[in-house]
Write a structure and sequence with these properties.
heterodimer; A: about 110 residues; mainly beta; 6-stranded mixed beta sheet; 3-stranded antiparallel beta sheet; 11 strands; globular; B: about 110 residues
Chain lengths: ~110, ~110
């Protein structure tokens, strides 16, 4: 069965510092991975997906199949990045397996 | 364009009752997925519908059911409610054409079972 692990429930950094949110997955097939974000009082929304290989709001994530990881990184964190971040694995239509989420707080 | 709309936003029920939640997807989206979110279990997949057919189902008991109408609107029903069914139920819509597609989430329906 598939599984997504986000080892950090809480992550605090200062503005301008680099940030890395960790995500590891377990899946026997070819993984389709995503990062979803939920800002305060907003709905859950897509941040980025590995297939697009794009940078959104300065965030990037690289799929490492050897380490089964999909860590989210940003070189210089901003206060507006404070949010709940979910790593998710898609194994079928509309079916995402989510990690437990990481609350990121960026202090001024 | 209008986002995913879920109704009702909040509801309170007692054990043994049943509840129906509604989801209107983004116009043009044919896939609707349902998720349960709780503090202990996080976000868990319930089921997914595409063109009125259930394509995927999660590991929930048969008390949880759903359906989709010809206009892609979807409903989910929970019968014989238990205290543990208290949760935020999220609906998400997508084009449904592939598994790499973005899911667009609603604000959720918060169910409290007393």
């Amino acid at each position: 069965a598939q599984r997504v692990t986000q080892p950090e429930k809480l992550l605090s950094v200062f503005k301008g510092a680099p940030v890395e949110l960790k995500c590891n997955y377990s899946y026997s097939g070819s993984p389709e991975l995503f990062w979803y974000v939920q800002y305060s009082r907003q709905r859950l929304q897509l941040l980025l997906r590995h297939i697009s290989r794009e940078s959104i709001k300065g965030f990037t994530a690289d799929l490492n199949k050897g380490e089964t990881s999909f860590h989210l990184k940003k070189p210089f964190a901003q206060e507006e990045d404070s949010a709940m971040y979910y790593c998710a694995l898609s194994t079928s239509y509309g079916k995402l397996t989510f990690g437990q989420g990481t609350i990121l707080t960026v202090h001024p | 364009k209008a986002g995913v709309t879920q109704t009702p936003r909040y509801l309170i029920k007692t054990r043994g009752q049943q509840v129906t939640l509604s989801c209107s997807p983004i116009s043009g989206h044919r896939s609707v997925s349902w998720y349960q979110q709780t503090p202990g279990q996080g976000l868990q997949f319930l089921f997914e519908y595409f063109s009125e057919t259930q394509r995927n189902k999660g590991n929930f008991p048969g008390r949880f059911s759903g359906r989709q109408f010809s206009n892609s609107r979807s409903e989910m029903n929970v019968s014989t409610l238990e205290l543990g069914d208290s949760a935020l139920y999220l609906c998400a819509s997508s084009l449904g054409a592939d598994i790499t597609g973005e899911l667009f989430f609603g604000e959720g329906s918060r169910l409290t079972v007393l």
